[in-house]
Amino acid sequence: MTTGVGRTLVLLRHAKSAWPDVPDHDRPLAGRGRRNAPVMGRWLRANGYVPDQVLCSTARRARETWQLAQEGLGATPAVSFERRVYQASAEQLLDLVRGVPSAVTALLIVGHDPAIQELALMLARTASPADGGGGSGAAADALDRMRAKFPTAAVAVLRLTGNWDRLSPGTAQLAAFVIPREAPDAGGG
Fold first, then answer.
1. In this predicted model, which residue has the larger pLDDT, 38 or 139?
2. Fewer beta carbons under 10 A from the terminal one: N or C of the chain?
3. Lowest-pLDDT choice from 26-40, 73-87, 95-109, 115-129
4. 3-state secondary structure of 175
5. Is 70 exceeded by the pLDDT of residue 189?
6. Is residue 188, in this structure, part of any structural domain at all?
7. CA angle 6, 14, 66 (to 5 degrees)
8. Residue 93, Cβ neighbours under 10 Å: how many?
């Protein structure tokens, strides 16, 4: 089978939301979120992390994040707005990922804290000398930063080999962790 195929999982926490007097699911993005989401889409494009498939929470702030990030991404991958992403646990998100068709090689999830951070930490392992070594210090630093805080509009990029249904804790390598103010054209974090 295609067990040797490299896959990329991109986890995007929704951008900064506003707090109007509406149900949580209906909260829109704040001004900062509207500025940061396209920045992160452009960062994804510039770094070659264009997804084949997107699983996006149905919450308004997540849908708006995806819409604005997609403008920056400049691509139109298949999108599923998934109610199961909203208020999911890391384990529930992992179950969703395991159900992704094997034809998808790059998957983006637009979701929420704490599940996005917890899933990234659950899956990530740092590079070992056997993985090519040199980036292990940078990967360990990124993992430490991600462990400390996973801010709104932050992106974690994980690489793995094999089919999605084989994904389990510690089986992905953290390739990047970027927050909006670190993106080249960031308007502030």
1. 38
2. N
3. 115-129
4. strand
5. no
6. no
7. 70
8. 25
Residue 175's domain comprises 6-182
User: Residue 127 gets which letter from DSSP?
Assistant: P
Using alpha carbons, select from 132, 139, 148 the residue that is nearest to residue 177: 139
CB 97 within 8 A of CB 125: no
> Does residue 39 lie within any of the structural domains?
yes
How far is residue 87's CA from residue 36's CA, in Å, rounded to a whole number?
22
Asked if residue 160 has pLDDT above 50, the reply is yes
Sheet strands (E) in 17-99: 53-57, 78-82
Q: What is the pLDDT of residues 138-158, one digit of tens each?
A: 778 889 999 999 999 999 999
Give the whole-angstrom CA distance, residue 99 versus residue 24: 27
**How much is the pTM?**
0.90
Separation between Cα atoms, residue 39 and residue 56, nearest integer Å: 18
138 by Cβ neighbours in 10 Å (0-12 / 13-18 / 19+) ranks as middle
Identify whether the C-beta of residue 90 lies closer than 8 Å to the C-beta of residue 98: no
Are 125 and 170 in contact, with CB atoms under 8 Å apart? yes
Amino acid 136: pLDDT: 60
CATH number, domain of 142, equals 3.40.50.1240
